[in-house]
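Quick one, T. Sequence first:
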Amino acid sequence: MKDLLLERIRNKKIKVGVVGLGYVGLPLAVEKAKAGFETIGFDIQTSKVDAVNSGHNYIGDVVDSDLKKLVETGMLKATTDFSFVKETDFIAICVPTPLDVHQQPDISYVKSSTEAISKYLKKNTMVVLESTTYPGTTEELIKPILEEGSGLKCGEDFYLGFSPERVDPGNLIYKTKNTPKVVGGVGKDATEVIATMYRTVLEGDVYEVSSPAVAEMEKILENTYRNINIGLVNELAILCHEMRISLWEVIDAAKTKPYGFQAFYPGPGLGGHCIPLDPYYLSWKAREYGFHTSMIESSMMINDKMPEYTVERAGNILNRHKKPLNGSRVLVLGVAYKQDIDDYRESPALKVIEEFAKKGSNVEFYDPYISEYKYQGKKHKGISKFDADVVALYDLICITAAHTNIDYEMVQKNAVAIFDTKNVMKNIDIRDNIEVL
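Structure tokens:
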């Protein structure tokens, strides 16, 4: 099987399947197809399948013309019909792995996708999980489902591995194509063949590890590292405010050290598809071994508290203007989870808005990239007009995303009060009405 697949990879005779056409799956499917591998995208959402098949792009990191050309030339198509799995030789699972209402890992999408694949899995196929999850998922969950559903034997009839997605929406340098990959397969042969497949498609290095569990833990480490360090600076931001010290200035000074320090910055909370979620996967799995991840859980508590702290600080600003939170008009500026993108997954701004509403504030939002968002089953529509007259209507402007296409000088000149949680107005000279987190 190994030699057969390596030869087929060299000759570009592998047909690729990508399950899940979101922020991870669609860019991966596009890169596979661009590299000369005929690709089928699978998704349970008809809207995404129809969009792909019409050449309509909905992911920022995908070039519109690339998608359109690949669809027109037949190199890429999408379907909701998993029976087409039997036509594929390489399958990447790129489905969401959120948390449930109890902050427990929700791997239902991974499980249901794997069950659907198992019904049509054929011999000499590579299956790779890319969805972030707890260590052990590939071998403890995916492998038994695939073997039972297909009647095939892992390592003998098909190869299985884990290769964590690394997607940073809006990153102008690193995309799917040039970001290094980590691959851990069930057995050395699986690792070699799967890594070869990625090397044929991607420009970034492919680093091989000894098992799927190592690759799964590696991904958790990447994001837990950031979670903990952001938790540290968020806690210091609270302390520095009490001490009347600018943490932002402290960080700028600290990062002049050329070794041993990496700058992280505070904010109204954590957002995105990985960093706010992944540490929960690890702490949940750790309990199976009677282990308490105290440092990780402490950082999560601090970061989860930041939206509430943001509104508390905003209330103090309003009080100085003889305004209560209850009844004040508040404009939250930016609901994306990071600057200059239209992605609001797990955005702390949504929780900030929720906290303002709980306190009785008349809260609205404006985001140049997001006109409306859905949160806890409800749609929230932003204001469509944003100018000096509009800014002057609010008792407080609370900046929660550092978008670069906002006229912050205009905001400063016309706002009654501003709470800048991202220090995006640091270059504004007149600061009488600006308070920074």
